[in-house]
Amino acid sequence: MTQRKAFPIQLDSLSSNQPKAKAPVSAQRPLPVTAVPRPVGVGLDSLAMRNRMVQKLAASGIQDAHVLKAMGAVERHQFVETGLVNQAYEDTSLPIGLGQTISKPNVVARMIELLRNGSAGPLGRVLEVGTGCGYQAAVLSHIATEVYSIERLKGLHEKARDNLRSFRLRNLHLLFGDGMAGFAKGAPYAAIIAAAGGDSIPQAWLDQLALGGRLVAPIVTMTGHQALVVVDKTAQGFTQQVLEAVHFVPLKSGIS
Ligand code: SAH
To answer: Which residues of the chain have pLDDT under 70?
Structure first.
Protein backbone atom coordinates (compact mmCIF):
# COMPACT_ATOMS: atom_id res chain seq x y z
CA MET A 1 0.00 0.00 0.00
CA THR A 2 1.33 3.43 -0.91
CA GLN A 3 2.21 5.83 1.83
CA ARG A 4 0.12 8.97 1.72
CA LYS A 5 2.10 12.16 1.54
CA ALA A 6 2.26 14.27 4.65
CA PHE A 7 0.98 17.76 4.18
CA PRO A 8 3.50 20.13 5.76
CA ILE A 9 1.53 23.33 5.47
CA GLN A 10 0.47 24.56 8.87
CA LEU A 11 -2.17 27.21 9.20
CA ASP A 12 -1.64 28.15 12.80
CA SER A 13 -4.39 30.72 12.82
CA LEU A 14 -6.87 28.18 11.53
CA SER A 15 -5.65 25.07 13.25
CA SER A 16 -5.24 26.60 16.72
CA ASN A 17 -8.98 26.38 17.30
CA GLN A 18 -9.27 22.84 16.08
CA PRO A 19 -9.89 20.13 18.65
CA LYS A 20 -6.73 18.22 19.41
CA ALA A 21 -7.85 15.10 17.65
CA LYS A 22 -5.57 12.08 17.63
CA ALA A 23 -3.21 12.69 14.73
CA PRO A 24 -3.80 10.48 11.69
CA VAL A 25 -1.17 7.81 11.09
CA SER A 26 0.26 9.69 8.11
CA ALA A 27 1.02 12.69 10.33
CA GLN A 28 3.09 10.58 12.68
CA ARG A 29 5.70 9.76 10.05
CA PRO A 30 8.67 12.10 9.62
CA LEU A 31 7.77 15.13 7.56
CA PRO A 32 9.64 15.51 4.26
CA VAL A 33 10.92 18.91 5.37
CA THR A 34 13.57 19.78 7.90
CA ALA A 35 11.04 20.83 10.53
CA VAL A 36 10.88 18.76 13.69
CA PRO A 37 8.06 16.26 13.09
CA ARG A 38 4.98 17.30 14.98
CA PRO A 39 1.64 15.52 15.07
CA VAL A 40 -0.20 18.38 13.36
CA GLY A 41 -3.72 18.03 11.99
CA VAL A 42 -2.61 17.09 8.51
CA GLY A 43 -6.11 16.41 7.21
CA LEU A 44 -7.50 19.58 8.74
CA ASP A 45 -4.76 21.77 7.28
CA SER A 46 -5.14 20.44 3.77
CA LEU A 47 -8.92 20.72 4.08
CA ALA A 48 -8.55 24.39 4.96
CA MET A 49 -6.33 24.89 1.91
CA ARG A 50 -8.83 23.12 -0.32
CA ASN A 51 -11.71 25.17 1.04
CA ARG A 52 -9.76 28.30 0.24
CA MET A 53 -9.03 26.98 -3.26
CA VAL A 54 -12.74 26.27 -3.76
CA GLN A 55 -13.62 29.81 -2.64
CA LYS A 56 -11.20 31.16 -5.23
CA LEU A 57 -12.64 28.90 -7.92
CA ALA A 58 -16.13 30.18 -7.11
CA ALA A 59 -14.89 33.77 -7.13
CA SER A 60 -13.31 33.20 -10.54
CA GLY A 61 -16.66 32.11 -11.98
CA ILE A 62 -17.05 28.36 -11.39
CA GLN A 63 -20.70 28.00 -10.40
CA ASP A 64 -21.56 24.31 -10.59
CA ALA A 65 -21.98 23.10 -7.02
CA HIS A 66 -21.15 19.50 -7.99
CA VAL A 67 -17.83 20.63 -9.45
CA LEU A 68 -16.95 22.79 -6.45
CA LYS A 69 -17.78 19.92 -4.12
CA ALA A 70 -15.61 17.48 -6.08
CA MET A 71 -12.72 19.98 -6.16
CA GLY A 72 -13.06 20.35 -2.39
CA ALA A 73 -13.05 16.60 -1.88
CA VAL A 74 -9.92 15.50 -3.77
CA GLU A 75 -6.59 15.94 -1.99
CA ARG A 76 -4.49 17.48 -4.76
CA HIS A 77 -1.39 17.36 -2.56
CA GLN A 78 -1.44 13.55 -2.85
CA PHE A 79 -0.73 13.85 -6.58
CA VAL A 80 2.34 16.10 -6.63
CA GLU A 81 5.96 15.47 -5.76
CA THR A 82 6.83 15.84 -2.09
CA GLY A 83 8.88 18.97 -2.77
CA LEU A 84 5.89 20.68 -4.42
CA VAL A 85 3.29 19.85 -1.80
CA ASN A 86 3.27 23.43 -0.50
CA GLN A 87 2.10 24.61 -3.96
CA ALA A 88 -0.56 21.93 -4.33
CA TYR A 89 -3.49 24.27 -3.74
CA GLU A 90 -2.20 27.21 -5.74
CA ASP A 91 -3.75 27.83 -9.14
CA THR A 92 -0.76 26.58 -11.01
CA SER A 93 0.21 23.63 -13.15
CA LEU A 94 3.08 21.58 -11.69
CA PRO A 95 5.51 19.04 -13.15
CA ILE A 96 4.55 15.39 -12.64
CA GLY A 97 7.52 13.76 -14.39
CA LEU A 98 8.27 12.62 -17.96
CA GLY A 99 7.83 16.20 -19.17
CA GLN A 100 4.12 16.31 -18.28
CA THR A 101 2.16 18.55 -15.91
CA ILE A 102 -0.84 18.39 -13.61
CA SER A 103 -3.40 20.93 -14.89
CA LYS A 104 -4.28 24.07 -12.93
CA PRO A 105 -7.25 23.61 -10.57
CA ASN A 106 -9.07 26.40 -12.40
CA VAL A 107 -8.72 24.66 -15.76
CA VAL A 108 -9.78 21.29 -14.30
CA ALA A 109 -12.86 22.86 -12.72
CA ARG A 110 -13.71 24.88 -15.84
CA MET A 111 -13.48 21.85 -18.15
CA ILE A 112 -15.54 19.65 -15.85
CA GLU A 113 -18.14 22.38 -15.47
CA LEU A 114 -18.38 22.55 -19.27
CA LEU A 115 -18.62 18.75 -19.43
CA ARG A 116 -21.48 18.65 -16.93
CA ASN A 117 -23.30 21.42 -18.75
CA GLY A 118 -25.47 22.08 -15.72
CA SER A 119 -26.94 18.58 -15.50
CA ALA A 120 -28.85 17.86 -12.31
CA GLY A 121 -27.29 14.53 -11.34
CA PRO A 122 -23.99 12.78 -11.99
CA LEU A 123 -22.78 12.19 -15.54
CA GLY A 124 -22.86 8.65 -16.91
CA ARG A 125 -19.70 7.09 -18.35
CA VAL A 126 -16.80 9.50 -18.91
CA LEU A 127 -13.58 8.99 -20.87
CA GLU A 128 -10.52 11.01 -19.91
CA VAL A 129 -7.58 11.07 -22.33
CA GLY A 130 -4.33 11.78 -20.48
CA THR A 131 -4.45 10.38 -16.93
CA GLY A 132 -1.13 12.00 -16.00
CA CYS A 133 -0.82 11.83 -12.22
CA GLY A 134 -4.50 10.87 -11.85
CA TYR A 135 -5.74 14.06 -10.18
CA GLN A 136 -8.39 15.04 -12.71
CA ALA A 137 -9.47 11.39 -12.96
CA ALA A 138 -10.12 11.44 -9.21
CA VAL A 139 -12.19 14.64 -9.51
CA LEU A 140 -14.13 13.10 -12.40
CA SER A 141 -14.89 10.01 -10.32
CA HIS A 142 -16.91 12.28 -8.00
CA ILE A 143 -19.15 13.63 -10.74
CA ALA A 144 -19.67 10.58 -12.96
CA THR A 145 -21.01 7.07 -12.47
CA GLU A 146 -18.04 5.49 -14.30
CA VAL A 147 -14.69 6.95 -15.40
CA TYR A 148 -12.25 5.44 -17.90
CA SER A 149 -8.93 7.27 -17.95
CA ILE A 150 -6.24 6.41 -20.47
CA GLU A 151 -2.54 7.32 -20.46
CA ARG A 152 0.08 6.65 -23.16
CA LEU A 153 3.14 6.82 -20.89
CA LYS A 154 3.60 3.67 -18.84
CA GLY A 155 5.52 5.51 -16.12
CA LEU A 156 2.65 7.93 -15.53
CA HIS A 157 -0.02 5.24 -15.80
CA GLU A 158 1.76 3.44 -12.97
CA LYS A 159 2.29 6.61 -10.98
CA ALA A 160 -1.43 7.40 -11.21
CA ARG A 161 -2.25 3.89 -10.04
CA ASP A 162 0.00 4.37 -7.01
CA ASN A 163 -1.38 7.85 -6.28
CA LEU A 164 -4.97 6.67 -6.51
CA ARG A 165 -4.71 3.36 -4.68
CA SER A 166 -5.52 4.68 -1.22
CA PHE A 167 -8.55 6.65 -2.49
CA ARG A 168 -10.30 3.38 -3.44
CA LEU A 169 -12.37 4.93 -6.20
CA ARG A 170 -14.28 1.89 -7.40
CA ASN A 171 -15.81 3.66 -10.41
CA LEU A 172 -12.44 4.76 -11.84
CA HIS A 173 -10.71 2.52 -14.40
CA LEU A 174 -7.12 3.31 -15.40
CA LEU A 175 -6.01 2.18 -18.84
CA PHE A 176 -2.61 2.14 -20.50
CA GLY A 177 -2.79 2.88 -24.23
CA ASP A 178 -3.06 5.47 -26.97
CA GLY A 179 -6.07 7.58 -26.11
CA MET A 180 -6.29 8.90 -29.66
CA ALA A 181 -8.16 5.68 -30.38
CA GLY A 182 -10.43 6.32 -27.40
CA PHE A 183 -11.54 3.20 -25.55
CA ALA A 184 -14.23 1.49 -27.56
CA LYS A 185 -15.12 -1.06 -24.89
CA GLY A 186 -16.44 1.66 -22.58
CA ALA A 187 -18.37 3.52 -25.29
CA PRO A 188 -20.71 5.26 -25.73
CA TYR A 189 -19.61 8.01 -23.36
CA ALA A 190 -21.79 10.73 -21.91
CA ALA A 191 -18.66 12.87 -21.86
CA ILE A 192 -15.08 12.83 -23.15
CA ILE A 193 -12.38 15.11 -21.76
CA ALA A 194 -8.84 15.48 -23.07
CA ALA A 195 -5.92 16.74 -20.99
CA ALA A 196 -3.61 17.05 -24.01
CA GLY A 197 -4.08 19.10 -27.16
CA GLY A 198 -3.82 17.94 -30.77
CA ASP A 199 -4.45 19.61 -34.14
CA SER A 200 -7.89 18.10 -34.49
CA ILE A 201 -10.34 15.92 -32.64
CA PRO A 202 -9.71 12.24 -33.37
CA GLN A 203 -12.60 10.57 -35.20
CA ALA A 204 -12.68 7.79 -32.58
CA TRP A 205 -13.71 10.30 -29.89
CA LEU A 206 -16.58 11.57 -32.01
CA ASP A 207 -17.66 8.00 -32.76
CA GLN A 208 -17.50 6.95 -29.11
CA LEU A 209 -19.49 9.93 -27.83
CA ALA A 210 -23.11 9.10 -26.98
CA LEU A 211 -25.93 10.95 -28.66
CA GLY A 212 -26.53 13.93 -26.40
CA GLY A 213 -22.95 13.61 -25.15
CA ARG A 214 -20.35 16.35 -24.86
CA LEU A 215 -16.61 16.47 -25.52
CA VAL A 216 -14.24 19.09 -24.08
CA ALA A 217 -10.68 19.26 -25.40
CA PRO A 218 -7.84 21.66 -26.08
CA ILE A 219 -7.26 21.94 -29.84
CA VAL A 220 -4.65 23.88 -31.79
CA THR A 221 -6.66 26.40 -33.81
CA MET A 222 -5.85 28.06 -37.14
CA THR A 223 -3.86 30.75 -35.34
CA GLY A 224 -1.48 28.05 -34.09
CA HIS A 225 -2.57 28.50 -30.47
CA GLN A 226 -4.56 26.12 -28.32
CA ALA A 227 -8.15 26.86 -27.38
CA LEU A 228 -10.75 24.91 -25.46
CA VAL A 229 -13.27 23.34 -27.79
CA VAL A 230 -16.68 21.99 -26.79
CA VAL A 231 -18.37 19.53 -29.15
CA ASP A 232 -21.95 18.35 -28.67
CA LYS A 233 -23.28 15.28 -30.46
CA THR A 234 -26.92 15.77 -31.36
CA ALA A 235 -29.41 13.91 -33.53
CA GLN A 236 -28.77 16.59 -36.16
CA GLY A 237 -24.99 16.16 -36.09
CA PHE A 238 -22.12 17.83 -34.21
CA THR A 239 -22.01 21.40 -32.95
CA GLN A 240 -18.74 23.06 -31.94
CA GLN A 241 -17.85 26.04 -29.76
CA VAL A 242 -14.34 27.45 -29.58
CA LEU A 243 -13.72 29.06 -26.19
CA GLU A 244 -10.75 30.60 -24.37
CA ALA A 245 -7.04 30.05 -25.02
CA VAL A 246 -5.34 27.30 -22.97
CA HIS A 247 -1.89 25.72 -22.65
CA PHE A 248 -1.84 21.94 -22.54
CA VAL A 249 0.89 19.43 -23.30
CA PRO A 250 0.64 17.96 -26.81
CA LEU A 251 -1.57 15.01 -27.65
CA LYS A 252 0.77 12.36 -29.05
CA SER A 253 0.07 9.08 -30.77
CA GLY A 254 1.45 5.70 -29.74
CA ILE A 255 2.57 4.45 -26.34
CA SER A 256 5.90 4.76 -24.59
N1 SAH B 1 -5.25 15.05 -16.20
C2 SAH B 1 -3.85 14.98 -15.91
C3 SAH B 1 -3.07 15.91 -16.79
C4 SAH B 1 -1.85 15.24 -17.32
S5 SAH B 1 -1.03 16.08 -18.64
C6 SAH B 1 -3.59 15.22 -14.43
O7 SAH B 1 -4.54 15.50 -13.67
O8 SAH B 1 -2.45 15.06 -14.01
C9 SAH B 1 -1.68 15.24 -20.04
C10 SAH B 1 -1.34 13.80 -20.19
O11 SAH B 1 -1.81 13.38 -21.46
C12 SAH B 1 0.13 13.44 -20.16
O13 SAH B 1 0.38 12.55 -19.12
C14 SAH B 1 0.39 12.79 -21.52
O15 SAH B 1 1.31 11.71 -21.48
C16 SAH B 1 -1.00 12.31 -21.88
N17 SAH B 1 -1.23 12.04 -23.30
C18 SAH B 1 -0.81 12.73 -24.38
N19 SAH B 1 -1.24 12.13 -25.51
C20 SAH B 1 -1.95 11.03 -25.12
C21 SAH B 1 -2.62 9.98 -25.81
N22 SAH B 1 -2.66 9.92 -27.16
N23 SAH B 1 -3.23 9.02 -25.10
C24 SAH B 1 -3.19 9.03 -23.75
N25 SAH B 1 -2.57 9.98 -23.04
C26 SAH B 1 -1.95 10.97 -23.71
So the answer is: 1-44
Task: Give the residue, out of 75, 84, 131, with the most ligand 1 atoms within 8 A of its beta carbon, to mutate for a pocket test.
Answer: 131
Catalytic residue ranges = 103
Estimate the crossing angle of helix 105-116 against helix 65-73, to 10 degrees.
Answer: 140
Strands 123-129 and 189-194: parallel
CB 123 within 8 A of CB 145: yes
Distance (Å) of CA 10 to CA 15, 44, 101: 8, 9, 26
The 3-state DSSP class for residue 215 equals strand
Query: What pLDDT is recorded for position 256?
Result: 97
Q: How confident is the prediction for the chain on average, in pLDDT? A: 88
Q: How many CA atoms lie within 13 A of 168 on its CB side?
A: 2
Distance (Å, whole) CA 143 – CA 164: 16
